[in-house]
Every structure is written in C-alpha cells, then in structure tokens.
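Table S2 (continued). Query chain:
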Amino acid sequence: MNKLKFEQFAIGSFHYPRYPLCYFLDSVQRLGVKNIELWGVAPHLYVDDLTGADVKAIKREIDARGLRLICYCPEQNTYPFNISSTNKALRERSIAFMERSIVLGAQLGAPTFLLCPGTGFLNEDPGEAFKLLCDAAQRLLPTAHREGVTIVAETQTWHDCNILHTAADQRRLLDEVNDPAFKAMLDVSQMTIYGDTIADNLQILGDDIRHMHLTSSYSDSLDLTLQGDALRQKYPDGRPLSTHIGFRAGNNPIIDYLRQMGEGGYSHYISLEICARECFGDPEFYAREGLEMMKQAL
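Corresponding output:
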C-alpha cells in the first residue's frame, strides 16, 4: 500500500502576515519541516515592492535555514487582479503581474507557481471568461518554460470565480491549454464545497495533480454522502462551509483525505493552508496543530 511521506509536507505562510517573513521561516524550522509555500503579499513578498537585492536577500534567508520553497502563490483573488476579465486594461495588467510573479518565484527556487482562474461577470456567459482564462494561461507559459516552472491551476469558490470549480472543470482547462508545464492542484475545501471526492480527483486528473492544499472546513450539517451532481443540484453555488480554518476547528475528514491521496500514489507536495484571521495572532500554534494531524496519515 502506498503511503505519503513526511518529506511531502509543506507549511504555507498564509496565516503569518502579522509577523515578519523571517519569523515565518524560523517558525517552520522550529516545526521540523523543510518545505515552505510563500503567499505573495505585502509585507512579505509582493513582487512590485522588491528590488533585485531584496530577492537575493530573501533567498539567502531561506537557504540559510535549509528550507525549500516548493510553491509561490501570489495573492490574486482580490482587487486589482483578474486574468479572465473582459476589461482589457485589468486583464493585461493582471497577466503582466503574473509574468513578473513567475520570475520572482523562480528566482527564489520555486518549481511551482499557483495560478487562480479569475472570473467573469455573473450576468455574462461564463464561457467567454473561460476562453480568456485559457488564453491567459497560454500567454504565461513562455515565461514558465523559460524559468523552468510548472503552473498549477486552482479551483475557486463562487465568491471568487464562476469558471473553475470542479476537477472536471480543471480537466477541461488542461485539455484546452495542452502544455506539459500547465497542470492542476487540489484544494480539499473547494473539493468539498462542490461535491467532488479524492477518488474523483484521482480518476479525472490523475498525475496531473501536481500540488495540494490541505485545508480544514466546518459545517454543522456536513453530509459527505451528498456528492457530485446531487450536491450541485441542491447547492448550485456550492455546499455552505466555513473553510481554511484551524485544523482542530474543522470536521472534514482531512486525515482520510491524506490517506486516500497516498493510496492513490500521489507523490508531490502538500501544503498546510490556513487563512482564518483568528489564527493570525499565534500562527505557529495553529501550524503545529495542523501538522500533528497530518502526521497521523503517515
């Protein structure tokens, strides 16, 4: 039976924005983890605030602690970025920002770049926004090839996106773009919201899943027997969930998710992702709490 390895686990900086970047790096060291995923936001790692000297200094800090940046994830779900917008100025600015961000991630050693799909207007045909997403991805790929980076596309919730929700949506996107440097990633919160399962993702995407966010979610009426089309018929905008919370606060079966991924032969990285603001005050506590749960799947 295949199993995951501890060496596949990574800690994301998503819930550390109230502390300096070096605090996060030291925290990961204290947790005994070697892999990190960096969230590209101020004050840590916003590409347009950094000089070449800044980037070299950050790389030295990472290397000095024996850490490995396995994925760079610039913030892209909030204003002013949307690579699928029909507003040309917004879209062009967003694509240019992603190109600069791919270069930054590569300079810091990240082999993977996380791309969010953007969105169309809710009163317009989502098919047009999907076409723009495919076009944006194809425009970003020359930079990814030059820098030796794989782009991984993440699904999003209805609040942020109306074009990429499920593994089937990701499959369609990968088939349209059709490039070996453009793959998918799995976030288990979006998976649960839209009624997919680990088995669905492994069947539909297989080894095209090149990255994973392990996230905790909670619903007081979480019924995981309701999946697939039946769930999407009942909840067209997705199952109501509180997501990306502290791991002990959730009730989605994250340990089972990890075991299923291991049994399915998943061999890439898995980042612990927490975004809940109530975890910002003591981020190492919540990272340790989540990591201890992840270890139970080994």
